[in-house]
Fold each of these.
Amino acid sequence: MPAIETEICHFFNCVLYLFFSSCPQSTCVHLLMDVLSFLLHSDPQRLVGVVGLEIHAQINSKTKLFSGSPVGFSAPPNSLVSFFDASLPGTLPVLNKRCVEAAVMTGLALKCTVNKKSFFDRKHYFYADLPAGFQITQQRQPIAVDGALLYSLLGGKKRNQVIQKTVRIKQIQLEQDSGKSLHDDLRSQTFIDLNRAGVGLMELVMEPDMSCGEEAAAAVRELQLILQALGTCQGNMAEGQMRVDANVSVHEPGEPLGVRAEVKNINSIRYLAKAIDFEIQRQIDILQRGGVVLKETRAYDSKSGETISMRDKEGLQDYRFMPEPNLPPLIVYTDNASLPPGIDVRQAVVVEAIRKRLPELPGVKRDRLVRSYGILPEHSFTLVNEEGLVEYFEEVLKATAKEPRKVIGWVTNDLLGHLKEQNIPVSQRSVSRTGNAIIPSCLSPRLLLVYVPAVTHTSHVGLTQVFQEMWRSPGKAAQQLIQEKDLGLVADTNQLHSICQKVVDSHPHEVDAIRNGNKKVLNKLMGLVQKETKGRADPVLVRAILQDKTS
Ligand SMILES: Nc1ncnc2c1ncn2[C@@H]1O[C@H](COP(=O)(O)OP(=O)(O)OP(=O)(O)O)[C@@H](O)[C@H]1O
Ligand SMILES: [Mg+2]
Ligand SMILES: [Mg+2]
């Protein structure tokens, strides 16, 4: 709060104090004073949002965290359930090494400290899809702590300035997923599907370092790309493989954090941004009206675009955490040299061995693309954002030996435009919707090689036309379309001669300029010839003819 405002508040406080302290009913009065003083100190105009995320990422593993049942999304209900998943008495957990390795790898990629020793705990709550009545999680000492996620936003008027941000990762804990409740409203029945019960989760807890929906969305998108690059989580939010709880509060900068409301289980990045921005505004409105923000759990309703109260969090807090008695401490080893004698190496989780397997992460990939190909940073974001697009871009570059800046324009505008229009992910480019060869052939660099020389060397015009025709006429080969639609390169010397002559005759000033040594003007004449031929004239021939006619 600026000095002058502080002075004013202080003055009012003194007046209030003098006024009320002379009154007899002092308790009541002090309460009133507190409220008034709060209202004077808090300036709702200066309130800003604070966001901290908890992200549940399903571990990409063939089997569950503590049982051998397979993991699958759309299997028939209760077909992937072992006795342990159903919590039958006498069953015991057996830790899945693959899940531990996934959490360690994710921790390393997010610059966390990996705890050599971590523990499993029971978190008790009652819900029909949790047959044991508790979830095995890591409350006391999780597997990884104190990391950071670097992410970027596109800012500026044209949204082409890359703004780098960081959010701290408090911890990554291993835990079990719960089952699913399926509600049949018509018959007022609830069915339980335990296929998901016991699937391995990584809960990533972020510090409250973000301030709005856009930042949270960018951070979650970056995390999703990282997890997908690592292969530790498939990251498909629509299938619930990544679910986000958004903790939101508002406060005045420099003042302590406000009371948080937790918007649970958001399963789309777009909704995440909307839910957070709605929630920030809702809380600001409450404070501006002089109200109080409740500590509660809320849900996002995508239809109305609002968050709705689910339950009061205050009363819910007693999870009765206790150490999981059926699992020993989880030990991971720094390197092979630190393995104790007699241990089965195949059973051990070795951090340095996992570090060596870390792939190129999205941030590093983007930097490399900008450095090696001279493309714009925002284009590197587009490439990395679409699964398979970087590989495709590099294939095209290699096959055509074209300027990277040209290829990027074609790939990001034409190709992505068409794929988005048809709602086809780039990664599925080899799968044709129409069942014929149009998509793979369109997107194959080998095909580009076939038709690039046949269309044009200079502009994308011909190329784009062929491309569009191929989408319109599935199954037809590029060469066939070039002939049928007359899209080929105009290389007929007589025809080009007469077009060039026409251009030369109608531009005597330009011709004089060239003859007087201003060779750049030749480009203008070349442009005019291309205009006449709709960009399909062979530029090498045109240049030669024009040079001849203007010499
Ligand atoms: N004042 C605040 N405003 C916004 N976010 C906050 C605030 N205080 C804490 N957070 C965020 O709330 C989250 C707390 O997560 P944590 O898992 O520690 O506890 P929890 O939400 O109480 O437990 P549960 O796992 O049962 O949901 C963190 O992501 C943290 O950044
Ligand atoms: Mg949590
Ligand atoms: Mg929480």
Note: The pocket of magnesium ion (ligand 2) is lined by residues 54, 203, 205 (CB under 6 Å).
Amino acid sequence: MTDAASIPFRKMNGLGNDFVVLDARTRPLSIAPEDAQRLGDRNRGIGCDQVIVMESSQKADVFMRIFNADGSEVSACGNATRCIALLAAEETGRSEVSVETNAGLLKAKVDGANRITIDMGRPRFNWEAIPLAEPFEDTTGIELQIGPIDAPVLHTPSAVNVGNPHAIFWVNDVNAHDLGRFGPLLENHPIFPERANISLAQVTSRNSLKLRTWERGAGLTKACGTAACAAAVAAARKGLTDRKVTVELPGGPLFIEWAENDHILMSGPAELEFEGTLAPDTLSRAPV
Ligand SMILES: N[C@@H](CCC[C@H](N)C(=O)O)C(=O)O
């Protein structure tokens, strides 16, 4: 039996990138960084990469607030956007829905749980928008390396902002590098004043990439939707691929198109794993 004060949640994922989803529309909730840390902790809490809070929106079907498992609040999450779009489509009975985030208003088309397409908006390549700590005229490859000066292990990443900051290192084999070791060093490198999501990308054809990501504030994840968008536009911008690619992530494929209108379209699945309730004292600030 559930107590009226308990807080319902959903556990969802997009290609294994997983989320605790709270609904603050009927009952306002205030999430402190330590709440997100506790919920995200796979040993102490439910365990997830991000905590997502659904809020009411004046402009869209729903507003989505995003917290990384380290408690930091961020502006974009591609995989969670598909999850929230799926819920909004089920609630409204419409296949075309909109999701507002702190990065902007995103339109979504839901053709069932396995084919959700999000218009992720326009990428930004300007160093100040990424942001980088110092001017770079060309962000297709910025001066940054890991390893010995004369034989770097990883070097010259592309940098791009797709609602959040990304650096993409081009490699011959995404599995040949210890991303779990280099990821935290690069995420916190002083060149990234807001930290960054760090990816290894391997071009496998004109229409396909392999990608592994160390996420800012979450670590190694099975999939990162915004990283797939960032890698796809960065690869096309370097002339390595066409503008329509399949991005193979450890959790499965995402289909990315950098459309002629400069918007990025991301298509993939979303899954509801289970629903549950949190005890009222789980959140450090009492539910409002
Ligand atoms: N998993 C997400 C990205 C979540 C936010 C990211 N870690 C950041 O700090 O910017 C995705 O699917 O895009």
Note: The chain has two domains: 7-119+270-278, 145-261.
Amino acid sequence: MSASLRPIIICGASGVGKGTLISKLMENHRSKFGFSVSHTTRLPRLGEVDGVDYHFVTNEVFTNLIEKKAFVEYAHVHTKYYGTSIEAVKNVLASKCCILDIDYQGATQVKFSSDLNPVVIFVKAPNFEVLEQRLRKRGTETEDVIQVRLKNAIKEVEIADKNENNLFDVVLVNDNLERCLQEIKDVITKHIPTIKWD
Ligand SMILES: Nc1ncnc2c1ncn2[C@@H]1O[C@H](COP(=O)(O)OP(=O)(O)OP(=O)(O)O)[C@@H](O)[C@H]1O
């Protein structure tokens, strides 16, 4: 499928629902999408599996990979490294569309410093109160971390609203999950017309 040559990037503040949206999309269209497995130096959350959810690595391994220029993008977020290796993306693109869950810094690197020509989608929560509720309800972060993430979210939404250099192809609001999923599919169809939904 030639569509597999353009990766899809889903960007947005922590808690807006990127992971949920990507899981649903992949569940519903398993044969079309692959999710590149990122590297991270953060510890696994309960139930996360090394090599499936992330490649969990030490700081030393991660910085070695940076030196070897193994990453399409990497970022230092909330004191931890996260990165997408070129190999991981190409592994997926060989047979499927590739979805990348990365922040705006990563998206900037992929869009402007690689030849991958991604479709970049920014996802927002309907408002900051809802975002805060989602982060609290998820219950995976401490209060301090939630506060840092909410501050970062304000900055990230400003960046999306400015959309300098047209980094984002589209900005979507994840209010209703099913509606947002359909909007993502519409964006993908627009930019990758060869895709056939099953
Ligand atoms: N449309 C929605 N309506 C209500 N709740 C939602 C919606 N989308 C996601 N959620 C919930 O919001 C919480 C955050 O979602 P998720 O973990 O997917 O966010 P994320 O953007 O991937 O966050 P992170 O970047 O921190 O991994 C989850 O508990 C999820 O079930």
Note: Helices lie at 18-28, 59-67, 86-93, 104-113, 128-138, 143-162, 177-191.
Amino acid sequence: MSLLEVRHVSQHFGSLVAVDDVSMAVEAGELRGLIGPNGAGKTTFFNLISGFFKPTAGHILLDGRDITRLAPHERVARGMARTFQITEIFPELSVRENLRIPVELAQGLRMQPWLTRAADVRIKERIDELMQLGGLGAHANRLVGELSHGDQRATEIMMALALKPRLLLLDEPTAGMGSHETYSTSVLIRKLHRSQNLTIVLVEHDMRVIFNLADRITVLAEGAVLDEGAPDEIAASERVQEAYLGKAA
Ligand SMILES: Nc1ncnc2c1ncn2[C@@H]1O[C@H](COP(=O)(O)OP(=O)(O)OP(=O)(O)O)[C@@H](O)[C@H]1O
């Protein structure tokens, strides 16, 4: 059974069909890349998987269970977390304080009026572990708003990971980055994928990142699946080349 299964999903906005009868199955442990020209429907598709939109038609299954009508936070409870195209962090808080929010949430301790000393130790240990894993140890007490774009993105990814997802959805993690930061973000994603038993679906514009990281790639064009396969198959696909060249022309 696939970890994530999308069955014949469509999303209409009035007369516009942003996602048109898309099916996709992602196996546990896979890193799936999702690409497509501008306006292909990638972000809409991500919003459908993570529950920000409810599809006009079709079904979404996680571990074989239908989650189509579940709210985003209910999907988080089932093991799904996501990041956004625009980094969603609290710039006026430190890295440690940002991470504390999802760590408390994951441990069922958010909004508790008081914490036992043991619970507080557990929270701090988990924050330290996440900072270490994300390469953020040196920035623990710095305000996130003062960090580089790459470190802000790493903080956001580690906040998603704090929720202990099995499925992590990353929406353009290298958007707006220079080549150095793009490279270090790719290295982080690969490291997390390998060390944390994670399944990842990654939307990216940067083709080097996608072809370097993905086990398989799904290509969307005009809301529909244009092609799907291993990176070398997609690189050789005439249909895909035409879609990109056609768009650029
Ligand atoms: N909330 C919305 N209401 C109406 N139309 C929308 C909405 N969201 C997206 N669209 C339209 O749906 C289509 C697909 O958009 P979407 O943002 O999903 O594409 P994309 O592949 O993510 O594009 P990009 O690569 O530029 O981010 C576009 O025509 C867009 O204008």
Note: The radius of gyration is 19 Å.
